[in-house]
Specification:
Elements (H helix, E strand, L loop, with lengths): L1 E3 L2 H9 L8 E6 L5 H13 L2 E6 L9 H6 L4 H9 L5 E3 L3 H5 L21 H4 L3 H16 L3 E5 L3 H13 L5 E5 L19 H6 L2 H12 L5 H13 L4 E10 L17 E9 L2 E8 L2
Helix pairs in contact: 7-8, 10-11
């Protein structure tokens, strides 16, 4: 597995005779890798001749400085995990390599992300999706992968990426992989490394409530059932609900009770703080 730390090293790897012209699957990550990431690498290797994974903690998509400072960084462990997969190369640039300075300056432009910036994650994390679009625009234009692979846990981000590719005519096929969960249901996330033992013990309640709601919601009981789940989660000593909502799986507009939940494209979305660590999850309504 090749470890590449600069655009020049990446260019040389892509232009060697053995690599030139081969289809490239790209798995962008921020490191602290887990089985969910590795499943995307496996998916990419099934569909592309070569697989490139990136590890870059992108400062422009954090809207809280302390969140960026505390984000887990486990470079050596990440390399060890990737060596057990079909990953051909890992790109791990510095902030200066990407943005030309140790601290990124103002964004050179504003991306048209439409309503995605005003609902759910867009509403609760101002500027977050602009930062995501900014880094992926750089990666897609300079790396030129045929396909890029993302996890379903970040469901709204998937929509952002697809809109970016469409509006910017980037020509990258976006492939989604399923959410991977721990045996107790907690969605795998790099942020889980920051959970205290008590928060880790209580965090699986997030998916338990989502799963319960997915089977019990109707157009008649949904406000009371959502309120009940919020109360269940907030009664856990380490958990505090930021939002728990039903939204359209494509437009992300909120559900208003006017249509049958089981006949429409509705999905459950949650953001919950677990002793200060922000966790997100989602699931379909059965």
């Amino acid at each position: 597995m090749h470890i590449l730390r600069s655009w020049e090293e990446l260019r040389k790897w892509r232009n060697t005779p053995s690599e030139r012209g081969l289809s490239l699957g790209f798995v962008p990550t921020m490191g602290a890798l887990h089985a969910g990431h590795l499943s995307l690498v496996a998916l990419a290797s099934e569909e592309c001749a070569r697989v490139l994974t990136s590890i870059f903690v992108n400062p422009t998509q954090f809207n809280r400085a302390e969140d960026l400072a505390l984000y887990p960084r486990t470079e050596d462990a990440d390399f060890d995990l990737l060596r057990t997969t079909s990953c051909d190369a890992v790109f791990i640039p510095s902030v200066q390599e990407i943005y030309g300075a140790s601290e990124p300056g103002p964004a050179p432009r504003h991306y048209d992300l439409g309503e995605l910036e005003s609902v759910l994650e867009g509403a609760h994390r101002p500027g977050h999706f602009q930062g995501v679009a900014r880094i992926l625009d750089v990666f897609f234009r300079r790396i030129e992968p045929q396909s890029a692979f993302f996890g379903e846990k970040d469901f709204q981000q998937l929509a952002v990426v697809r809109r970016l590719v469409e509006t910017e005519s980037l020509g990258v096929r976006i492939v989604e992989g399923p959410t991977h969960r721990e045996p107790d249901g907690l969605a795998m996330s790099s942020r889980n490394l920051r959970l205290t033992p008590q928060a880790r013990a209580e965090a699986p309640a997030i998916y338990r409530e989502l799963h319960r709601l997915s089977k019990t919601l109707t157009p008649y009981n949904w406000p009371a059932e959502l309120e009940r789940s919020v109360d269940v989660l907030n009664r856990c000593s380490t958990l505090e609900v930021e939002y728990l909502e039903i939204a359209h799986r494509d437009r992300f507009s909120p559900y208003d009770g006017s249509t049958d939940l089981r006949l429409g494209p509705w999905r459950l979305f949650a953001a919950v703080h677990a002793s200060g660590v922000r966790l997100i999850d989602n699931c379909s309504i059965e």
